[in-house]
Design a protein that fits this description.
Layout lengths: L3 E2 L10 H13 L9 H20 L7 E4 L2 H11 L8 E5 L4 H12 L3 E5 L9 H7 L4 E5 L13 H11 L8 E5 L11 H4 L3 E5 L10 E5 L23 H16 L1 H20 L5 E3 L14 E5 L5 H10 L2 E2 L14 H5 L4 H5 L1 E5 L6 H18 L2
Parallel strand pairs: 1-11, 3-4, 3-5, 5-6, 6-7
Antiparallel strand pairs: 2-8, 7-8, 9-10, 10-12
Helix pairs in contact: 1-8, 2-8, 3-4, 5-6, 9-13
Length: 384
């Protein structure tokens, strides 16, 4: 890990003990959970225990949780299922979705599905009424993320679910409401039952679990496009990742048990970060009106603009100084566009000069102080 790691929204450093125990489970429970012999049953028992534990962490019944290869696959399963709907089809997504949803929507569009994109307000938050108003009679799916991975804006998922149900007035079935909750689980928290979503995607490596394992909550059934051996009730065919599922559920349990204390500590770090950033002449938090302690934003994610210096250059300068940050979503780091900030109406000079700073369980106040010191120094020296 970098001496000062502030890119937790991209990936959290894994818990060493969980990886060690997962490796031991991979050796001891090596059987295929779908096999009927004793070795397979042993692996199945580990898998189902993990499923039950993870379900408790997200407020769901175990039978509603399917393991996937990660958050992207968990997003794609309900989205691709729309291709099997008959007749004209449309979907509604927010314009600030993670690439796992946004790019999949582009594929659907190429295949004939109408995609309606709802822009957020300048504060980065999507209006539930705007989502409901975008729904057409042929809309089969709506997807809005729980926490934006670039700005930390917490979306009103429960209110959106209510608006979608009210818009249909009970006379027609509301479209399937999916939520990418990858940035919510383990930070601000996510309760599938309380929010009223029909589907939600999660990923282990954001919590300190291993890569290559995620989960999909399904409150309503979907017909998956992929077919195979029928694992996970046919939702996600493929041999199970038993040790990955075990480590995922343990990471989620740890995050849930420490959530309140972690949130309180994250708020202190957020205040130091935002106040310290504003003290650097010229620096602008995005959105500009964000203040410390505003519960509309995850305290773990902040977007800062350094006008006159590109975000890519600032990230490289900080990396040379031993500080890891990003210019946005890690999967889109090589792209010059700042789609999320553009959708919010952020001026191009600000979006071009922005970086993302994200904290996690090991972040301490000295990390924030070091970032502010070195960011201020680099900005003063290289600003155009």
């Amino acid at each position: 890990m970098a001496p000062c790691y502030l890119d937790w929204a991209a990936s959290a450093p894994p818990y060493p003990d969980l990886l060690e125990q997962a490796a031991a489970i991979a050796y001891s429970a090596y059987g295929n959970p779908s096999s009927l012999h004793a070795t397979g049953k042993s692996a199945r028992a580990e898998l189902e225990a993990a499923r039950s534990a993870l379900a408790r962490s997200i407020g769901a019944e175990p039978g509603r949780v399917s393991f996937t290869s990660g958050g992207t696959e968990a997003d794609s399963i309900p989205m691709l299922s729309t291709l099997l709907a008959k007749g004209e089809r449309s979907i509604v997504i927010s314009a600030i979705e993670h690439a796992a949803v946004f790019e999949q929507a582009r594929v659907l569009e190429e295949l004939g599905v109408k995609v309606i994109r709802v822009r957020p307000a300048p504060d980065g938050i999507v209006d539930p009424a705007a989502v409901a108003d975008a729904v057409r009679r042929d809309t089969v799916l709506v997807s809005v993320m729980a926490v934006n991975n670039e700005t930390g804006a917490v979306q009103p998922i429960g209110a959106i679910a209510d608006a979608l149900r009210s818009a249909r007035g009970g006379s027609e079935r509301a479209p399937f409401f999916h939520c990418d909750a990858v940035q919510a689980l383990g930070t601000v928290g996510f309760d599938a039952a309380a929010t009223g979503v029909d589907g939600a995607a999660f990923s282990a490596h954001k919590l300190g679990g291993p890569r290559g394992i995620g989960a999909l909550f399904l409150g309503r059934p979907v017909t998956p496009l992929a077919r195979g051996g029928g694992q996970e009730g046919g939702i996600r065919p493929g041999t199970h990742n038993t040790p990955g599922a075990w480590a995922f559920c343990r990471a989620a349990e740890r995050a849930a048990s420490a959530r309140e204390a972690s949130l309180a500590r994250a708020r202190l770090l957020e205040r130091a970060l935002l106040d310290g950033a504003r003290a650097i002449p010229g620096v602008v938090p995005l959105p500009a009106g964000r203040l410390p302690g505003d519960e509309r934003y995850s305290p773990y994610i902040a977007c800062l603009a350094f006008p006159g210096l590109s975000g890519e250059v600032m990230a490289r300068l900080l990396d040379e100084a031993g500080i890891a940050v990003s210019t946005g979503a890690a999967c889109s780091g090589a792209k010059k566009e700042r789609r999320v900030l553009d959708a919010m109406g952020v001026a191009r000079d600000l979006s071009f000069s922005s970086i993302r700073v994200s904290t996690g369980r090991d972040t301490a106040m000295p990390d924030i102080e070091l970032f502010l010191e070195r960011a201020a120094s680099a900005y003063a020296r290289y600003r155009v």
